[in-house]
Amino acid sequence: MCATAFAEEVKPSATTPAGTPGQVIAGVRTTAYTHTESDHIEYGPRTAVGTLLKHGQIRSAAADWSIYPVGTVFQIQGDPSLYIVDDYGSALVGTKTIDLYKPSHSAMNLWGTRHVTIRVIKWGSFAKSLAILKPRAYKASHVRRMVASIESRPA
């Protein structure tokens, strides 16, 4: 499902067209992850784009790149931090969940699962998502699913 279709399904703000900066999306399911979890250890503190995981004013987030393309920047209502989608995870593909990076297990557990309202500051790029994902598609079915979903988007 593309970001625009997802946004329409979640009922974006009536004053902001879907897929545009400033769009508000309510009821987004968020979870948290950390680099020392067993399924992330092999990647260490690196994102899928190859940068260090961020936690500060700008923070890393993982999502299905066919919904929230790489480079999407958003803010959670009530949180002054900015989040950038620079990672993905197999459990996220096919869901609308955003996984927020936390620097420790305790911070991860403290976040738990929350439904939040986000404001998209800037939508990322499906073209950049494909450029990163396509060379990896032979390795993992979840990557192939994201590639197929992005490629099936209307032009």
Molecular structure report:
This protein is of the alpha/beta class. The protein has a single domain (3-151), classed as Beta Barrel (Barwin-like endoglucanases). Helix content is 21%, strand content 25%. Strands 1-5-2-4-3-6 form a six-stranded mixed β-barrel. Helix 3 (126-133) runs antiparallel to helix 4. The protein starts with a helix and ends with a helix.
Write a brief caption for the model.
With 155 residues, this protein is an alpha/beta fold. The protein has one domain: Barwin-like endoglucanases (Beta Barrel), CATH 2.40.40.
Oligomer: single chain
Order of helices and strands: HEEEEEHEHH
State the CATH superfamily name.
Answer: RlpA-like domain
Strand content is 15-25%
Q: What does the main sheet amount to?
A: 6 strands, mixed, barrel
- Which structural class best describes the helix and strand composition? alpha/beta
CATH top-level class: Mainly Beta
CATH architectural type:
Beta Barrel
**Count of separate DSSP helical elements:** 4
* Topology-level CATH name: Barwin-like endoglucanases
Relative helix content: 10-25%
Strand adjacency order, main sheet? 1-5-2-4-3-6
Overall shape: globular
